[in-house]
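From the methods appendix. Each design record in this collection lists the tokenized structure first, followed by the designed amino acid sequence. Records were kept in a plain field format so they could be parsed without special tools. The example shown here is representative of the layout used throughout.

RECORD:
FOLD TOKENS (76 positions):
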């Protein structure tokens, strides 16, 4: 993926904050992918898990947001 010139500094900061980290429901294993958002709960694509509203719940089983666990997919 390429970024336009001048956007690297902002991008690096965003990556450091892991805005695109995947989260997985600890109840039904539904994965929240920030690049896709959540159509069921009308969350637009690009919304980080941390930016989801407090009332947001699992689109699969309606578990509370705190039931979700960070999916560590960044290391091989
Ligand atoms: Zn769930």
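DESIGN:
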């Amino acid at each position: 993926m390429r970024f336009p010139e001048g956007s690297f500094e902002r991008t690096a900061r965003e990556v450091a904050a892991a805005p695109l980290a995947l989260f997985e429901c600890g109840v039904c294993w539904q994965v929240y992918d920030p690049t896709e958002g959540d159509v069921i709960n009308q969350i637009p694509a690009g919304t980080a898990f941390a930016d989801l509203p407090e009332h947001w719940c699992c689109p699969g089983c309606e578990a509370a947001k705190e039931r979700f666990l960070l999916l560590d997919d960044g290391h091989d």
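APPENDIX NOTE: Residues 20-71 form a domain with the Rubrerythrin, domain 2 fold (CATH 2.20.28.10).
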